[in-house]
Design brief:
The protein contains six helices and no strands. By secondary structure, it is mostly helical. The protein has one domain: Cytochrome Bc1 Complex, Chain D, domain 2, CATH 1.10.760.
């Protein structure tokens, strides 16, 4: 019984990474083209209106998925991000997150 419980716990412990790690970074690179219009600006400042744009290259995959879904569902408020995220399918979110999380911090600048 103890062995069965340990096996189930180990299997469940690997499940979120497998489910969330389903994105395709190569496809995400193509889909993220629009994202780089703001997130690829040196210094991460939008020109007008001026505001800081977070650096997302090298960011945690699960965080990126959660953030995009929160923008999509209106749980996080930013008019541009809400609009962009609403146009994304589930696969798009996973692919874009896979792409940005695969980058080193310097590659996304």
């Amino acid at each position: 019984m103890h062995r069965l419980i340990m096996t189930l716990l180990l299997a469940l412990g690997t499940l979120p990474g497998q489910v969330l790690g389903a994105g395709d970074a190569a496809a995400g690179k193509v889909k993220a083209y629009t994202c780089t219009g703001c997130h690829g600006i040196p210094g991460y400042n939008n020109v007008y209106p001026t505001f800081k744009v977070p650096k997302i290259g090298g960011q945690n995959y699960e965080y990126l998925v959660a953030a995009l879904k929160a923008y999509q569902q209106g749980e996080r408020k930013h008019s541009t991000m809400n609009s962009q995220a609403m146009s994304l399918a589930e696969a798009d979110i996973l692919d874009i997150a896979a792409y940005f999380s695969s980058l080193g911090h310097r590659e996304a600048e």
